[in-house]
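Tutorial sheet, problem 5. The two components below are modelled jointly, 544 residues in total.
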Amino acid sequence: MLVHGAVYARGLRRYSTYRAATLAGVLTNSVFGAINAMVLLALFGARPEINGYDATDAVTQVFIGQALIGVTLIISGPSLDLSTRIRTGDVAMDLLRPVPLQSWWLAQDLGRATFAFAWRGLPTFAVGALLFDLAAPDAPLATVVSLLLVAVLGFALRYLYTLSGFWILDVRGLWTLMGFVGPVAAGMMLPLALFPAPVADVLRLLPWASLVQIPAEIYLGKDTLPGGSALGGLALQAGWATVLLGLGAWVTGRATRKVVVQGG
Amino acid sequence: MADPIAPRRVPHLVPRPVQDYARLAWTWTRTAFQYPAGLALMTTGVVLSVVAEFGAVLVVFWRAGELAGFSMAEGMVVYGLAAAAFGTADLLMGNVERLGERIRSGELDTMLVRPVSPLVQMATDDFSPRRLGKILPALGILAAGLWWAAPEWTAGKALVFAVLMVSGVVICASVWLVGACLQFFVADAREAANSVTYGGQALTEYPLAVYGQGIVRAVTFTVPLAFVSWQPVLYVLDRPDPTGLPDALRFAGPAVAVLAAAVAALAWRTGLRHYRSTGS
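Model answer (structure tokens):
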């Protein structure tokens, strides 16, 4: 546990050196958030309520989504250094460590996510609150827990994408694909409430929705959550986190049996 | 400027940089086809990105019925124009956004000693036909939208519309180049420039009237993205400008394109003159 604490702290410190990039990220996320928000405001100008969402709910979700881009890295390319290390073979070094591969990278990535949330997520949300009318959190405590689960889930998904590199050497195609599936299925591109109801109901249950749609519904206090309450939403997120981390551990085992380390 | 190497005997009908561009782009295209599976996968990725974006546009129009007075058919024309213009500009010029990397790695120095314009080299480097995966579906959406919206066509109107479309591509490419040139001065400016380039694309995918007068004026008179999809749509659908700007503006596209290209050329030259190699 001590090791993981140290890795977490290093992850946090490492990303805190990229100041200009962080600032540029806030700018980009805010611009995209504002554009999305204005389109949705025009939409809700024509239809005041869609599936329990009003304009304020939709705009709030847009900025929750933009604020979580830095945390989940849902639209970027290979974002774990692990994917380069698998390609170059440096992963052999990681496997020598007396710490499981997955928890090592989880600790490092949570450090990164913490920094991204504080310096990229919160400022983006603040810009949104300055420019638009955003809703206040319905259940602040549940929202905080939900955001923690978002960070874990964001890692677990990317870890699985990354591990595919043990089997397919060029993971760029998969990343490109996931870069588009992810934001749509997560409710980042548009709130899932706008989709046809049967589609939205299926997407809500998939792991990507737990990255944006579910936390947004917890924040907004919607009864479309599984079980109709924040607790149901948290249970869904925690369930996916357990399943995906379990899957990650299993795939790691399969993958490491495949690695052949050549001496020298 | 005197040619540093002995000029080849080629007809002077086509300017030298254009010849270079075509030759280098063709070389990179052949390179891309050496990895057909990778190319197919990445093209599929690009097509999917259009599907996702356009899907979002459709959902918004489906829910709204009419968005800022524009129907779904008209919205398709707007989206098709914006995506086709940005896609084409990305194909022709998109790679210049990697200027910062080239400066850091020293590749720009290599380009400067070659007898071909560094801008041509930068734009064609890693030229990839996968970007057609954006342009072709976008043109399809544009055609479908025009067919559905059914404006009245005359030969003259079709010609003017084609000119406005080309102007849109030139404007996008110019904005892209100016954004890239910032990296001569600020090394980490790439993502900030993205908020204008990709952000500009996201903005022009919807009828600009959605955003209100302030933004329409900003993208008409400062970063002239209004001439990429908005003004051409007003022209082809023969609609008065709902934001209250003069209707004559829709014909300003070509002039704005020339101006934008001139500004971009100036930015590039200034940047290049400012550039001091590390000499390593």
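Marking note: The interface with chain B takes residues 20-21, 23-25, 27-28, 31-32, 35-36, 38-40, 42-43, 46-47, 50, 170, 172-173, 176-177, 179-181, 183-184, 189-190, 194-195 of chain A (CB under 8 Å). Full credit if you identified this.
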